[in-house]
Automatic annotation (TrEMBL):
Keywords: Nucleus, Transcription, Transcription regulation. GO terms for cellular component: transcription factor TFIID complex. This is Transcription initiation factor TFIID subunit 2. Residues 1-20 are annotated as: Disordered. Pfam families: Peptidase_M1, TAF2_3rd, TPR_TAF2_C. The keyword tRNA-binding does not apply. Belongs to the TAF2 family. GO terms for biological process: transcription initiation at RNA polymerase II promoter. Residues 662-981 form the Transcription initiation factor TFIID subunit 2 TPR repeats domain. InterPro entries: Ig-like_TAF2, Peptidase_M1_dom, TAF2, TPR_TAF2_C. Residues 284-489 form the Peptidase M1 membrane alanine aminopeptidase domain.
Amino acid sequence: MAKARKPKNEEAPGAKTSENTGAKVLHQKLFLSIDFKKRQIYGYTELEVSVPDIGIVGLHAENLGIESVLVDGEPTVFEYYPHHQNSETESNWNSVTDPASAADAAAMEYIGVLKREDTANLLINCCKPSKDLSEQLDNVTLENGSQSSGEVKQNVKLIRINYWVEKIEAGIHFVGNIVHTDNQMRRARCWFPCIDDEYHRCSFDLEFTVPHNFVAVSVGKLLYQVMCKEDTTRKTYVYELAIPIAPRWVSLVAGPLEVLPDRTNFLISNLCLPHDLSRLRNTMEFFHEAYSYYEDYLSANFPFGFYKQVFLPPEMVVTSSTSGASLSIFSSHMLYDERVIDQTIDTRIKLASALAKQWFGVYITPESPNDDWLLDGLAGFLTDMFIKQFLGNNEARYRRYKANCAVCKADDSGAMCLSASPSCKDLFGTHSIGMHGKIRSWKSGAVLQMLEKQMGSDSFRKILQKIISRAKDPSNSIRSLSTKEFRQFANKIGNLERPFLKEFFQRWVSSCGCPVLRIGLSYNKRKNNVEMAALRECTAALDARLSVIGATSDSESRDVDAGWPGIMSIRVYELDGMSDHPKLPMAGDRWQLLELPCHSKLAAKRYQKPKKGGKPDGAEDNVDAIAPLENKTSIESPLAWIKADPEMEYIAEIHLHQPLQMWVNQLEKDGDVVAQAQAIASLEALKQHSFSIVNALKNVLSDSKVFWRIRIGAAFALAKTASEETDWAGLQHLIKFYKSRRFDAEIGLPKPNDFHDFPEYFVLEAIPHAIARVRGAEGKSPREAVEFILQLLKYNDNSGNRYSDVFWLAVLVQSVGDLEFCQQSLTFLAPLLKRIDRLLQFDRLMPSYNGILTISCIRTLAQTALKLSDSISFDHICKLIEPFRNSDTILQIRIEASRALLDIEYQSKGISSTLLLFMKYVVEESSLRGQVKLCVHTMRLCQIAVGCDSDDCVDTVSLLDLLHLFKSHVVFNNELLRYYLFCIFQILAGRSVAFTFIVCQIIFTSAHFHVVHLFPYSLWLPVGSSLT
């Protein structure tokens, strides 16, 4: 038995990366016994390894106790260097005196840790040793350590490692009577020795011994389960996975799980804890349709044969969903019963997305880090196809439009480049973490959708089918996919020309930035055409684009600024019809002048005598004073409205300047949800809002045939138009619309809830939230808005309604938090707070779905206290919220209470005190997901603190404490927490701009590092998107 050796200078003296040792694992067996009473995991693993000439095999292992190692049945010498050591670090941080130096220290620490984790630290001698392992490694030349797999296949050894898990806190966890893995990057090594590399794959045999009344679910096919001969109270589950996978995709969940086989497809199994079984049954009714749809679309059976889905309590998972090969683990908060409406769409999309990643990401894998974007994009594309098929084309197009908008906001520097050696190769997977990873996923999916539009949906589908079919070919199975191979498929199957593909991939995949188009137009009556001027810009600065390709010369600069391949189409809607004009080149001169012929002709203008006593222009006193100007377009030209890039063939930020009436026409007459969303955004952005705008928005809100998300957008736009200048018309329309649907006309009070019409339910649910955002000249809520929301809270009646009103009530409560009270409306504050207190007490006695109602009450109490700090005591609110942080409270409520207390701490005592409180909360928080949510919230507070002009600086003590936390075992156990903590350091150093969502990326080089500026992300994100 060998003890773990402490490396000198935090580096194993002879440690080489697994890549350099040349070893390759061909097959691995894992045999683990799980003792739930003693909370111990022990066993052994056997690896069939192709050993290089060096005779040394390097594996990854962490938090493990290595008892012995045998090679072909004979004991051998091995050395084990755990990477994570709580070594003395104060001497390294003596220079930390301000946020900038702390950020530099954190960057050095982060880079060092990532490099150490990439290094093999369990060195096994597979030949008779003549000297110490460290000396042998030092004498080996690089050539001996970099042989191809073909050269070393001859020397195959069977290595057996007997071990136990020393610290069950990273990679695998005990929570109550459940054991589960978390599938974090580089954490498989924390529960079994392996080559823990995304691009090193092998087949697996797995055996897990657990109590006889427990279920152990893992990857692959369950061969059998057998009672143990030595102990009949225990049972062994045996799994086989013949398809080679990376160790990260090996998952395990063991505990008192209930199994729910799919009623339609026996290959699908769903598991959860007993109390969630009824919700699981209701949630999974649709899933076999998504499963079958993917198989039909790809013309292949599910690659892993059996598919398992396990739902665990939220405090047990790191994210809402994690993937293993043939096994996905979800948070049980996604489950819902037949009475819940709001959770349905989000849950179905997440389940479909996890299934898509099984095809592209787990089964089909990227050939290199620079190909990660492609598999991510293909999984996203498959998910979009599911949304289109089962949730409707409107939902799919609306989500894609919102995602494209977010990408354009974020794609402003080289770190958003999808595939380039400097941006992916040496990032150790950090480019796929957090909001940055989500933005990259949206961009990847959008780029592939652009390709699909170029080649046609049938050709693109054939490419995906080809990728799957060649992977399933037993004679020549190729399961990795590269960007180069995909380009070849696009050329041969998609019939796209090579010059176009070269330019397309160079601009959209290997570079950064999206086009920004500023378009103006006028109608030439004499020529009967539209004269259009367009200026093309880029969301990324030229320096950022040059840094990606390493260009410095003027000629290279000109190439980078050449534009994008293809021609953008302009769609002109006229009085007599519609016509497309593919005339706007996306390359060449930045300024473009276009002439678009019109096909409609104006009728001769007739002169009308003014009515007696009327005005010369025929206008009436009660008509909007600027109506003649707005209607000028329809009177003096045949144009109705104009759309640029109507089919979303580009990820582009388009600023189209057309007359107001044309925007109104587009909103009212164009049936496309993207066109309607663009029209609402343009009308809402105007500095002055006329009655014609208000009326158009009101008409859209009232039209039940319009897509419900567009109607919600119109409601919020109406709230923004409400002002004294328009006699609060927007507010009046919102209230009138709500009362027409929900009030009893005879008694003037709300009717009992009836949510049978889901689209109408979503629209009406958003109205109170929109009303709460109406502001007067001084930024205060009108008295009528406050009174109306109080009335809704007071008279809410859900008796006789078959659906739950918990989300409905939660929105009402959150609307109170959005109100800005003035002196006249302060009289309503007491009854509002009293009503919220009653809801809190009620939710304690009868807990709502996922604690939604309590969360809204806590959030509203904190928001109101922060706005009215002169009237409401912080101490009183803190005493009210603090009990919700008890460990026996469900995760969602516990984290919301901690967020509220952090907000109050920041408002009352500043950022240093907030950081200290955050560190206290993180150490106390037992769940990995809760730690991440607290860190993300603190990151936002730090961004606010840096963005405001105040003298609130972080003291050195807080910075040093934060650095100690950054290097602690708490952070080592949680990859996402470590990443966001690193972001906090960079934000405090001022390496960001004033936006809420911040993501950073490290660019590594062989000799040094530098930190690229933090990314600003707009709050305008796709539906259902969040940072955690």
